[in-house]
User: What shape does this take?
Amino acid sequence: MMLVRALYSLLMWLLQPVVRAKLRRRAVQEPAYGQHVEERFGVYPALVTPLAEGQYFVWVHAVSLGETRAAAELITALRTALPGMRLLLTHGTSTGRVQGQTLLQAGDVQVWQPWDTPAAAKRFLDHFKPLVGLLVETEVWPNMVAACQARHVPLCLVNARMSEKSLKQSLRLAWLARPAYAGLRAVWAQAAPDAARLAALGAPVQGVLGNFKFDAVPDAAQLAQGQAWRRAQVQPVLVFANTRDGEESLFLQVLKRNRPVAPVVNDSVATKHIANQKVQWMLVPRHPQRFDAIAALCEAEGFTVSRRSQWTDGPEPADIWLGDSMGEMALYYALSDVALLGGSFAPLGGHNLIEATACGCPVVMGPHTFNFAQAAELAVEAGAAFARPDMARAVAKALALVQSTPDLHQAQAAGRALGQEHGGAAQRTALAVQQLLG
Assistant: This one.
């Protein structure tokens, strides 16, 4: 086992120049990747506000945007359960770091996650001395686990999920994955299938506590603004949210085939204006570095585009509205009647559909939802979401929903009720961490 991790550590050490080069490339489009780079390798400035008597760091790792949003309710619950807590928040992506800034209070610290070499993990733990580490959903790194064990820092996996695909990948690297998962202090899973898969890797599963995402409360100001803009629209609004590379092309091709669905005087007008569908479509790409490319793609396919970043008093007329802003998903869902789920039409596992249903926006998803299998299943059973095997049939279902007011209202109500029925996971997890620490 020691030899295996030694070889892994050597590989991670050799890859450091590659990591630096990748960060430089990504910083061209996303400048955050070029900032505080040395944090990635365990080098930190002195704490601006040293720990006071009775204070301690609770380390929460939320690698990207989705995990950071999920962590919000947990962090709120932890502040109540652990009064001496100061938050140490780490991320791996720029979108996660930007979102994480909204969760910080005076005295909290936010840094990049350290690259998984023994030296970087040691420097990270020696510098911050966290009382406990909480990894949100995924992200179990062998050297960090070993470093926490050596320093008796309980490292836990919370809101844990593991798909069948991830389990198979981990089993192919069982010589590395099993010791890492077995070295965790505790694991609290989202659902029973996640717990079973994690246990198969030797993880110390302590219970199934549910999914933090059901606890999320949409931003009230964004909801109000989105609803006000929706009331000003004559046509139904449908959003394709959190889209990923390749999905937009599939979507635009379906729209082009469906253009002449309403009687028009001139066929050439039907070819040029999607308004003949009697609905307003909106695209919200998952990653900000793709905003310009998606705007160009839409225009190249013959659609006019209105970008959120250029709105002043609300949406401006165009074939497609482009949601080119970060942190405004509640606004986009409140503005929309139905959402298509990005990441589910390519084999990427889908994204968080609970965020949409909590805003009263029913979801139509494609065949790939393995990252959120339980949430997708619960939403379908409740009537708040609908699964379709391909883009064409998903678009057709979305159009059918907005053409049937009773069906639409029923799906909207089901979505709002979903969070109330399945909430409480963040509070349960905070209490479990409190008990773990004694």
In short: Residues 220-422 form a domain with the Rossmann fold fold (CATH 3.40.50.2000). The mean pLDDT is 91.
